[in-house]
């Protein structure tokens, strides 16, 4: 089984890559591809998937805290 990765894109979506099952709140399975993006801004008309609505309207650049 391959490792699943989730990348927090600057000013955009969460990019999911790998063998993962995406479920809704009732446990129903979404159809996904081997790589897909989830909405982080709340503006997508295709939630939970990203449709690009965030472009120019959402700012977030999350970074891993550096250990001292």
State the secondary-structure class: mainly beta
- SSE pattern, N- to C-terminal: EEE
Classify the beta-strand content into a percent band: 15-25%
Structural Rg: 14 Å
Main beta-sheet strand count, sense and barrel state: 3 strands, antiparallel
Mean pLDDT: 95
How many strand elements? 3
Q: Low-confidence runs (pLDDT<50, min 5 residues)?
A: none
- Please give the count of helices: 0
Shape annotation? globular
Order of the strands making up the biggest sheet: 1-2-3
Instruction: Classify the helix fraction into a percent range.
Output: under 10%
* Distance linking N and C termini: 34 Å
Describe this structure as you would to a colleague.
- By secondary structure, this protein is mainly β.
- 0% of the residues lie in helices and 18% in strands.
- It has no helices and three strands.
- A three-stranded antiparallel beta sheet has the order 1-2-3, with no helix packed on it.
- The model has no long low-confidence stretch (mean pLDDT 95).
